[in-house]
Amino acid sequence: MQVDLEVDGTRVSGLPRFQQAATQAKRLRRWAIGLGALAGAGWVLAFFVGLFAPQSIWLPLLVNQSAALLVLVAALQSAWWLTLWRAHALNPVVLAPQSTVQEQTEPHGWYERLLDRLSRRSAHVLGQIGAATLWLGGWSLLVLLSIEQVWNLALTPAAVGVSATVGAASALLLAFGLLVLERQLAQDNPAQWPEAGSLAQMTRVAIISLVLGALCLLFVSDSSVWPVRVAVLIAILPGLVAIELLLRAVLSLFSPRREQLEPTLLARSFIADMLRWPPQPLLALQHELHNRFGIDLRQIWAFSYMRRAFLPVLALVALVGWLLTGIHEIPLQGRGIYERFGKPVEVFGPGLHSGLPWPLGRVLSVENGVVHELATSVGENPAAVSLDPAEGPAPLTANRLWDASHVNDKSQVIASSRGEQQSFQIVNMDVRFVYRIGLSDQAALAATYNSADVPTLIRSTASRILVHDFASRTLDGLLGEDRAGLAAEIGKALQSDLQKLDSGVEILATVVEAIHPPAGAANAYHSVQAAQIGAQALIARERGAAAEASNQAQLQASLARDQASANAREINATAQAADLKFNAEQKAFASAGQAFVLEQYLSQLSLGLSKAKLLILDHRLGGSSNAPTIDLRTFTLPADPTPARINAQPGVAH
C-alpha cells in the first residue's frame, strides 16, 4: 500500500521498508555500477570484434548479453530512485526559505538571467516527467538500438577455438553470481523490500541470456548452424523486456505525479514475471490489472466460470480438432491415396472425403492428369525462369545456334565410318519427354509406392535408352531420314521400360528439339573458316603489294627514259644551233674579213664589261701638248684587289 506523506507522514518511521531504505539504496547503487561496468566492457569488446571480425559469433553474443545486463541495470536504477525517496521521506532535508534563496542567487547580467530561466524551465520539466522515467526510457532505447545493430540471421558458422571455452566459463561464472543475487532477492520479505520480487524476475532475464550464450560457445563449430542462430535470437528476450519498459515509461507520463505520494516501481515487467515454473500468465495479468487499475477479476463471475471451464473447453476443442483431421479435401487436379493404419485402402477423387483421424488414417496426394515436360539433361545450377517482354530482345534461351551451349543439351557418342575404318563421333541433342501419372487407380498407387522420384526415374531410364539407341546410328542418318522415326522409337522404348518397372507413368509425347555437333566443334569449324578467310585475305594483300611495286618500277623506268630522251633532244638542238651559228660566222668572215672580227671582239667586250666600273683615259683629250692629269687623291683603291689591266692599244687604259 502506498504511503501519502500528507496523511501518513508520521507513520513512515515504523515501516520496515522505510527503515532499510538507505541500506537498500547503497546495495542497489553498488550492484548497478558493477553490472553497468560489465555491460560497458562487453560493448567495448564487441566494438573491437566488429572492427576485425564482423561475421563472428562474438559480436551478437557480446552485444545481446550486455543488453540483458543493461536491462537489469535499468531495473536496479529504477528501484534505487524509489529507495532514495523513502530515505528522504524518513529523514527530510530542511530547505531555506524560497525568498532568501532567490535574494541570494538573483542573476545580474542578461546572459546569467537567460541561463537561470532555462535551468528553471528544465527543472520544471524534469519535475513533471521525473528523472526515473527519463533514465528508464534512455536505457530501453539504448538496448533496442544495440540489438538492432547486430541482428543478422545470415551469419555463417565458424570455429572459434579456445576463446569459446574461456567465454563460456566466464558467462557461466557470471550467471552463477546473478543466480545467488536472484535467490537473495527472492527470499527477501516483501514487507521489508516490496520490489525484491520484481528485481529477482529481471535478474532471471540476464541469467537466461548468459546460460544460452555459454551453450552457444560450447557447441559452436564450422559445421553447426544452430549456435550462431541462437546467439542472435538471444536478443528476443531482453528486447521484449526493453520494449515493455519503454512503453511503461511513456505511459507513466500520463499519470499524475505527487511529490508526497510514495511512487511505485516503474521497471517491472510482465514478460519477466512469466519466467517462473509453472508459468501463470493469467494470474500475473490479474495481479497487474488489480495493482494498476484496481480491477479485481476475482469478483466477476464470468471470469471465474471461464477459469473453471478453461480446461474442459480446451480438451473439447482439442478433441474436435483431432477428429476433424479425418476430413480431407482433394483438389480438382489431384487425387488422394487413403491409408488406414498404414495400408492403402482407396484412391480418393476430387472432393471431400472422410476417414479415421490422424495418425490412424492419412491421405497421400497424387496428381490427376497434370502434364509435365522433362528434359534428359539439366544444368547444375539452372537459372530462374524469368518472363521476357514480347516486344523486347529475345532471351538467351532462344539462341538455337550450334556454337552456343544450351543447358538441356546432352552429349552422345554415335557411330562413324571414314573410308574402310570404323570410328565414333559426338553429337549434342535436346530430347524432351511429355508425361503424366496414369489416370487409373493402379497407376496412382504405383507412382506413389514404387518410385521415390518420378522425374529422376524417367531421366535415368531415358539416358540408358538414348545411349543404346544412338550407338548404332550415324550422323548422316540422324540429320536425315532417321530423324523422323527417332522420337517415336525412343518414346516406345521408354514406355516399355517404365511399364516393366511398374512406375505408373504414361509417356504422352517425345520431342527431339535439336541434334547437332557439339558447340566446341562448331567453334573449331568457325576457327578453320576464319583461318581460311585470313589466308585468302593475306594472299590478296600480297598480290596487291606486288602489283603496286611493279607499277612503281614501271613508272620510274618510264620517267628515266623520258628524261634521257629530253636531255638527248636538248643536246642535239644545242649542237645544231652551234653548228648553224658557226656556219653563219664563217660566211660573215669570208665576206667582211677583219671588220667582222673587230665587231665580234667589241661585242664580246661590251658584253663582258656591261656591269664593270671603268675609267677610260685617252691621250687625245685636252689637246696634243697636254697630257691628261690624274689626281690620285680623289680616288680610292678599287674594291677588287686584282690590278688593273692596261690594253696595249695607245690611249686606252682599264
Task: Give me the secondary-structure topology.
Elements: H1 5-8, H2 16-19, H3 21-52, H4 58-90, H5 98-104, H6 110-129, H7 131-150, H8 162-186, H9 196-219, H10 226-233, H11 236-251, H12 270-273, H13 281-293, H14 301-324, E1 327-330, E2 334-340, E3 343-348, E4 351-354, E5 361-367, E6 372-375, E7 410-418, E8 421-437, H15 441-449, H16 454-470, H17 475-479, H18 483-500, E9 505-516, H19 519-592, H20 594-608
Antiparallel strand pairs: 1-4, 2-3, 2-5, 6-8, 7-8, 8-9
Helix pairs in contact: 3-4, 4-7, 4-9, 4-11, 7-11, 8-9, 9-10, 16-18
Brief summary:
With 654 residues, the chain is of the alpha+beta class.
Query: What integer is the average pLDDT?
Result: 78
Q: What count of helical segments does DSSP give?
A: 20
Helix content: 55-70%
Number of spatially distinct domains? 4
What string, H for helix and E for strand, traces the elements in order?
HHHHHHHHHHHHHHEEEEEEEEHHHHEHH
Q: Strand content of the residues, in percent? A: 5-15%
Q: Based on helices, strands and strand pairing, what is the structural class?
A: alpha+beta
Number of strands: 9
Q: Write down the overall geometry.
A: flat
Note the quaternary state here: single chain
- Using only CA atoms, what is the Rg? 59 Å
Q: What low-confidence regions span 5 or more consecutive residues with pLDDT below 50?
A: 94-105, 379-383, 641-654
Distance between the termini: 157 Å
Write up what this structure looks like.
By secondary structure, the chain is an alpha+beta fold. 57% of the residues lie in helices and 11% in strands. It contains 20 helices and nine strands. The strands form three sheets. Strands 6, 7, 8 and 9 form a four-stranded antiparallel sheet that branches. Strands 3-2-5 form a three-stranded antiparallel sheet, with helices on one face. Strand 2 (334-340) and strand 3 form a beta hairpin. The chain starts with a helix and ends in a 46-residue tail after the last helix. The model is unreliable at 94-105, 379-383 and 641-654 (pLDDT under 50).
